[in-house]
Amino acid sequence: MQAKQTRVGEGRFPVDRVIFTQSSVGQLGGIDSVNGVLARQFQARGVQIAYVSGNPPAGRPEIDGDVFVCRPLLSWTADHPLAAQYPGRMGIRLLIKRLLTPVIRIVHRARVGLFLQRLGPGDVVLLSSPGVVDALRLGPQAATKAYLVAHGHTSFEGYRLYGWLESQRRQMQFLDHLVVLTREDARRLSEALDVEVGCVANPSDVVPVPGVVREKTVVSVSRLSSEKRIDTAIRAFDLAADEVPGWRFQIYGDGVERDALEELARGCRNADRIEFCGRTDDAAAVFSGAELAILTSEFEGQPMSVIEAARCGTPTVSVGSVPEVARIAKRCGYLVDSERPEDVAATLVRAMRDEAGRHERGRLAIEFGKEHDPSSIVDQWMELFETRDPSSVTLAHPDGTLTAPAGA
């Protein structure tokens, strides 16, 4: 199967503007963090920054830029995910929204079409949300001169679990290239989609805060949603705290699961040692002041919380749900081979008692974190944008680009 266009071998291309896309610009999460780091680096190199928000923005982006909203009238349609839950008195509100939906869809299509037509050859659209790709595809399929790159932030397991493989295959007819985070995911996606897949690691500009005293604290920095399995972390800490006194668990982040997780924590034996700290914009201070971090996600691409913790010298206790997470844990953290709270607790207890081992793993974590230096990562993105050729991405991943099988 062929992507929309490859344009390899046409020389160097200009990079005047990078347009970041998210389902909702300004939404807390790892993707927002990555885009903020990349935007700062691109801006420092004289590249303009702009954004596409599939749905109305959740907040302002960290680096200022124009924001185009694909579906600004979404709340007036039956397409809104909560429309059916709030039908209004006698269902009248929902009925009105259903009547308006076809008209508003036409308006949204026209908006997207005009946006795509106005993009120039110096524009790069970095699409980090499958939903936004679909939103842009709703526009009239007039050719756009921009370079369209999907930036896959999840693992191959995530693509498969959520049924995104088939949608990604359809989207490749609209996109130029797909770039993911790890060599293994690039290889597996290349085989599944029969297209060339590039590989660029996530950047982080987090640096340790000098003079901060580490406390006997386990921290989680994450969106509070079901796939992050924070409930597993809470249960595991409650078990571990029975055996190791003096430790606390601080949970940073917000999300749809917060109320349920707070209720779970209140029922724990060690509820007084579990604290919900809300959203943080200072991951460096959080990780610099903690002895351990914890990751219990069902799947991850390349977890930003682990990378940020590593750059502060804080090892992470990680459930090895995907190969990349297991690889990092084996190198500079503590690996748990099971998602059972009892098994996570056993590894937590070992890490809590292992003062010398924590210090050594912290040293190794800092070395690992240097591989995610934002300047070198952006060098790779610029090389890709200027050549339109994923095989040119060779700095951090010398053999990180996989081509489609012969004869595909």
Automatic annotation (TrEMBL):
EC number: 2.4.-.-
Record key words, sorted: Glycosyltransferase, Transferase
Domain Glycosyl transferase family: 214-361
UniProt source species: Tessaracoccus palaemonis
Protein name listed in UniProt: Glycosyltransferase
Enzyme class at the top of the EC tree: transferase
GO molecular function: glycosyltransferase activity
InterPro entries hit by this protein: Glyco_trans_1 (IPR001296)
